[in-house]
């Protein structure tokens, strides 16, 4: 079942601006979908258009069979879609606990219950609950950013370059966390510069070029497609695909 269907979406940062030039994609229930492509292709802009942080000029965005193009970000969030931006996604001077409290639309007791559930899922956040977010490592901060988004129990999580700036080991750990999260019933659409690693954990993927999804397919097919490999991945793609893969069964 399609959770999200985006059809011929267009838009950018100013009225005359068209950075996303007719993008079409879908995310099914249980998917981890990677959005890869060259720098400046419009991947982050596409996520912001879907999440309501930018207003589309044209096209459709359907979330759970409801048209949401033009809705503002908080209305979309209440419908079950959460967006984790690439930067400034935690409040550095606030504690981990305070950051989580900022994430939910919930009232006192429900908010604390939800926070406790997230402490169980991410024990490192429980350990660090009284620490200022700025003292966390890059990978820990990304987990906190995802947990803030999870406070509203979304069905679909949009992640903008979650592994940007992380060491290879921290990036691999974060991809593992994303796969675990997906197995709890959260579908994922993520933009990634680490295209090879993203394809390893994803079910499906799109290659965005100049504001349009030029190719789509299973992550494994795209990773072994010679054109995609030449463009984005390099020769090391094939052996790496033998490992883990995400997606709910
Ligand atoms: N806040 C902004 N205001 C105006 N233009 C922007 C803004 N952010 C990005 N752009 C422009 O939009 C275009 C697409 O940027 P976008 O960040 O969506 O690309 P991307 O595919 O995510 O690649 P990258 O990995 O480089 O971020 C670029 O030309 C960029 O300069």
UniProtKB/TrEMBL annotation:
Transmembrane segments: none annotated. This is Neutral amino acid transport system ATP-binding protein. Belongs to the ABC transporter superfamily. GO terms for biological process: L-amino acid transport. One of its GO terms (molecular function) is ATP hydrolysis activity. It holds the Pfam family ABC_tran. Residues 4-235 form the ABC transporter domain.
